[in-house]
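Co-fold these.
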Amino acid sequence: MKSTLTNDIPPPKCQNYLNMGHPLSAISSSPDGTKMIVAGREIVKIVSMESELKIVNNLRAGKTQSLNYTGNDCCWHPSLIENYRFLIATAATNGAVVIWNTTREGSKSVERVLTDHSRAVNKLVWAPDKFDCLLTGSQDSTLRFWDFRDANPSKIIFSPKSESIRDVQFNPFQPYQFASAFDNGTVQIWDTRKQTSAVEKITAHQGLVLSLDWHPEEKNVIATGGRDRAIRIWDFTPSQVGGVMGKALHNVSTISSVSRIKWRPGHKWQLASCSSIVDFQTHVWDVKRPFIPVASFTDHRDVPTGLLWRNPNTLVSCSKDGYLLINSINDAYKPYQHIRTTGISWNVNNDIASINDKINRNQNNESTSLSNQFPSFFASFNVPAIPIQTPSKVEQGVLNIHSPSNLPSTVNSIDKSYDYHVLFEYFAKNYKFQGLPFDQLCQHNEIISIQAKQYHTSKIWALMNLYFTPLFKNENEDNNNNNGNNNNNNTSTNESLDENNIVEKLLQQKKEKEEQQQQQQQQQQEKKLKRTSSAHLHIDDNSGVNNNSNSNANNSVNDNIEDMSSSSSGNVTKNNDMTAKEPPSTSVYMESKNDQLLSNLLSAEAVTPLAPLPSRAPSIEIEKSKSSSSPSNTSPILYNDNSNNINNSSSIDDQDV
Amino acid sequence: MRVFHRFSTSHEDLIHDVSYDFYGKRIATCSSDQKIKVWDLNDNGEWGLSAEWKAHSGSVWKLAWAHPEFGQVIASCSFDRTVCIWEESEDEKGQKRWQLKATLVDSRDSVTDIKFAPKSSGLRLATCSSDGYIRIYEAMDIMNLSQWTIVEEFEPQKGSNNCISWNPSSYDKPMMAVGSNDPYLKIWEYNETGQKWVHLDTLSPVGNNNNYDSSESGKAIHDVCWAPNMGRSYHLIATASKDHTVRIWKLTNIHDKSKMELKEIMCKNDHRSEVWRVEWNITGTVLASSGDDGNVFLWKCNMNGEWKLLSIINGEERNEDR
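Predicted complex below.
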């Protein structure tokens, strides 16, 4: 989005823009919205806003380049009355205030030049009720209330003695009242009828207050923006006075000083802000969510200097880069669509710490408080496939730590709630080893384990299912092809885990038994293998991914079995005994791919050494690999430490968290 | 997997990152409320808040712990375009405090990701930013963390970069994977003869024909993670994407450029919503992914080389789960 400042700049992305060619300082709209003054140090022009942007009048054309005509600020008369609707006022850097009549041409367009200020005038506004009057705030620390038709125009002078004034604005609800922003960090409310002192004075910011804006709907609410990188919202209702001092209603932190703010019409608590240095973007903030803007307009290439809301979804902005842009909020960059609110971190024990904050990625509506975001979140997306229990209230900012295994410190072992014998009986009655396809057997046994709260064991069943199902699926297909046997094999995999399904054809049962025996065979062989070789078998990838995963799978199953036999929970060893009790009566091994696979896995010829280590390997690693039988560079911690065994991804018992 | 601990972090706004330290005894979290919080595991197995401080003047996007041989060091990056380095030190009374050691301000836009390099390269930090540049900093003197020099700066593409991941293997040349708003996963490698980082030729598009969003921007890569290479002869890189997919890529033959290949070996869209994080576990065998649907999915490879869903973790459930 951000391009570096080069001379060949691509045009802005927004639809409607106009390059004025000179740095711009301020814009102001005519009361009927059709035209706009665009003012800068060297230009004062009228631009037509209808359909497309077009310059209709250059007020400075043909005049001397007097400093009086610089446009530090500008303001179009707010009234629609015939005499006044063509009047505009500009404030100059040398202190001059110039009143123009846009209907007249050439030198007659200047109605009056008022030069009473000694230093630059930073801001000027027309008085809302007295059409001949305007108010200016200047770098010379005075505010003047002018009647430009009068011979002696600046009759009323306010001298707050508080340093330069950066911004003034009339209260939309009380035409005699105005607020002004000062360099010493204060914001003061004055009454035009009372020249001597301010009605109200608060310290709004540390350092300069650069901008303020009265709320268009909420009475007596002012937003202020300062050099201290904050936007604050204040309530000046008279009864609140005691409490207002020093405490803001809301506080938004921005990344650099705030030079202009403007409340957004139609959205009660949203405002636009831009910055005077560093940040070229204009942000739209919701003051209730003070940390992330609702939308950002990124098209300017230098600091924006003037903001104007044309309607709730369109912001007109001008900038030092000379461009006048019509920004549409639909095209704005919406940070909420791009930020990540979830994090995962693994630790060495295979615990996962995770956070997942719900976020409403379409922040179009009225702002919702944090805890109620949940309903609107689900409305934005498809319903997820896994049914999720929808809690009534979502906690934000919750950190979860998930653990796959028992931590040694929690010695309350699994079978605290269930007696060893009870478990054995339970498993003896409920485990299934035949009569169903392999994956359904595993699923069934997994569910049985969960019901007994043996999560460790249930995970082993889940893993067996995951690893070996393809093995037995292949075999099933082979059986069908070889024996031309019925299609019941396939249909049986689709049937539910029902007790009635145990009744099947004899041939089917025999096949299932054979599958399990092969499985047991494999397990027993792997057990033997594990005992004989201590080194991790590393199979080079030359033989394809399968072998690699197989070796992983093998070793993981090995470790599963190891764990089963070594853990304190007795029921697991009983499993082993139970499987060993299966009568190996029909020891028919079908010639199938699986045998081939198994023999590949277990034969020593399948082990091929890795490519030699590059010379950069530290010497310690070389020593270690020399001591073990294979020159692999695997980390030795993988298979020595049970607690590190990622394959035992089960969980601990149900003690209360 | 079951939830073992669950606690509220009391961040005032959205949390963006959580990170275990090297030993798993401390956790750091960062949030849009501009603060970083550090939690310690005490002897009873409980987590308690050990420090919190306002770290930036904008949302803090990411944190990274440095290897403990360099001390207790955290780096954080933020929307306010800065990267800050914090170190915990003990003063005379034995009080531990986190202090700001350095602020890196070279970026011209929001910094989206930071990662420390594998410790064999020394104390190096890579930062990736929305202005299109990846910058690599090094602390030449590890005793003095306030001096960081910018070692390298390269631009994978114009426009925003979202995520980076170092190759954690100490035996390869320094390499990293970069993900950005277009669907291409890029691998960059440090070329010693030229003394600079070059882009390796292998890149493959993330997008396919049957994706949800056919426009380019719909396939932005949100997160990338390079798996620890525990003895495999190839590398695995996982990506999380805006188009609802989690993908794993296999990178082979990195030492021989003519045969190098980057191939996609898994593509899953079980999240059915944008996927924002992928993380490998310490052995590089289980992949955790998390997305807008609120779930963490764990993936594991079966004997046929197919990646299957191992477990689903939904953090809101307190009771039994798979």
